[in-house]
Amino acid sequence: MDNRLKITSITTWIAGAIAIAMTILLPLGYFSISYQYLSGSLEAEAEIVSNIVAELINSNPDLWQFEKMRLEELLARRMRFNREETIRIFDSKNKLVAERDKPLKRPLMTRRFDLLDSGSTVGKLEISCSLVPLLLRSGFAALLGLFGGLIIFITLRILPLRSVEQAEKTLWETNRLLEEKNREIETAYSELKATQVQLLQRDKMASIGQLAAGVAHEINNPIGFVNSNLCTLEKYVAKIIDFISAQGEKLTSCATSATLAELSGKRKSLKIDYVLEDMKHLISESLDGTSRVQKIVQDLKTFSRNDTGADSLIDVNTCLESTINMVWNEIKYKATLQRDFGELPQLKFNPQQLNQVFINLLINATHAIDKDGTITVRSRFEDGLIRVAISDTGCGIPEDIRAKIFEPFFTTKEVGKGTGLGLSISFGIIKKHGGEIEVTSEVGKGTTFTVLVPVSAE
Ligand SMILES: Nc1ncnc2c1ncn2[C@@H]1O[C@H](COP(=O)(O)OP(=O)(O)OP(=O)(O)O)[C@@H](O)[C@H]1O
Ligand SMILES: [Mg+2]
User: What spacing in Å lies between the alpha carbon of 412 and ligand 2's midpoint?
Assistant: First the structure.
């Protein structure tokens, strides 16, 4: 912009100077040349007329002053076309002898010439013409000069600017293209980085998945037969209880009172009634436990299923439930969990990836809580979006790091507890499905991460 101003002021000065010079010099030059020409022509005319008049003086040297009529006729014959002139003849005492008078507008140009008779001056011839036509023509020349000056001014003032503007435009365009290319490179670079991070995380998840699959497989078999045995045991215990009560009834009718008293004492001392009752509870509790273990094994199997990332129609609430089951062991010592699930449509999403997002958010929430906290998981379907909000009453995220938490490898956790990949991976997964992750947080009060996924996008 500075250069533009500089060029503008330089061209303005040059153009202005040329325009002024043209406006002044053209009429001045025209005037001075025309003035000289007029003056020369007037002098020549005066000389010619005075020579003619001299002839008349020579023919009558004593009385020529009284030949007014002949002199004026002579002057009338010299009258030229297109020239407004006044010619006067004076005698030696400067008395007007004859004239050819024309009304002339002032200013005038006057030239005098001596009238000679045998070498001595006997009178004067005076010839005048008006300068008005010359001045008018000079004025017209001034106008032409002004007009030409203006054209030169405009041309010199605008043309360089146009070319500067053109050059600037080209420069801006080149700059814009460069910036665009730069942005493309930056985007490609961050995509590359994100892909690298995803690959790393995928590797990590794959090994965790393999481990989980192995553990799940190992647990699945023993827990299967423990569960089946417990079911059989439950039936056996019911039969034994049945048999013991039948046996008791029979003994009451046929045994002696001493035997009955002894058996009753033994039954009491061994708390057989309590044992029989408690056996049923123990078996049903154990069955409860084994079915929970089976559920966790099932979740582990779902999580570790070697899926290449294919999407399928899933129920997000079910997905949340199975994620909660998986991380329950982490949560239960630190926080109570509140579910607030709304009715949701089916969502086309990769279930493992959605699990991965929820696991990370739930684990982060748990890590943020010191003790006795609350984690609330809320799901809703609004405006074509499924919203899952995971809120905690933990430490909150300080303002100065809030912008960085989605960056790969950003973590505030000690070595071994966090890699700083969780949120960046989660963000990448949700973004890939056209969704968003929003954060609101207040230091000391807690944080809410809201996952928004469009249902129509898939
Ligand atoms: N609910 C939360 N409350 C407070 N801080 C949080 C919460 N969630 C995330 N953060 C902050 O964001 C950082 C990045 O989280 P992210 O999940 O990406 O990595 P991480 O949990 O540190 O490690 P990783 O998930 O890879 O094991 C965390 O280290 C933590 O400082
Ligand atoms: Mg994390």
Answer: 10
Q: Which helix (H) or strand (E) holds 190?
A: helix 132-254
Q: What is the CA(133)–ligand 2 centre distance, in A?
A: 99
Q: Please state, in angstroms and rounded to a whole number, the distance separating the CA atoms of residues 228 and 215.
A: 20
Least-confidence region, from 225-239, 274-288, 397-411: 397-411
3-state secondary structure of 109: strand
Nearest CA to ligand 1 atom 8: 364
Q: Report which ligand 1 atom has the smallest distance to the Cα of 392.
A: 1
Measured in Å, residue 330 CA sits from the centre of ligand 2 at 13
Q: How many angstroms does the Cα of residue 433 sit away from the middle of ligand 2?
A: 20
Element (H, E) at 87: strand 85-91
Residue ranges of domains in the chain, CATH in brackets: 2-130 (3.30.450.20), 310-458 (3.30.565.10)
CA distance 129 to 456: 100
89 neighbors 99 (Cβ within 8 angstroms): yes
DSSP result, 259-303: HHHHHHHHHHHTTHHHHHHHHHHHHHHHHHHHHHHHHHHHHHHHH
Q: What phi and psi, each to the nearest 5 degrees, are found at residue 299?
A: -60, -40
Angle of CA points 92, 95, 101, to nearest 5° = 120
The finding on whether 422 has its CB within 6 A of some atom of ligand 1 is yes
pLDDT in tens, 18-27: 878 888 888 8
How far is residue 221's CA from residue 154's CA, in Å, rounded to a whole number? 96
8 Å CB contact between 422 and 355:
no
β-strand partners of 438:
450
Yes or no: say if 361 and 337 are a contact pair by the CB < 8 Å rule: no
Distance of CA 28 to the CA centre of its chain: 60
Strand pairing report for 373-382 and 335-341: parallel
> Is the CB of 395 within 6 Å of ligand 1?
yes
**CA angle at residue 15 from 11 to 16, to 5 degrees?**
115
Q: Judge if the beta carbon of residue 320 lies within 6 A of ligand 1.
A: no
8 A C-beta contact, residue 31 and residue 134: yes
For 149-191, the pLDDT digits (tens) are 888 878 877 777 777 788 889 999 999 999 999 999 999 998 8
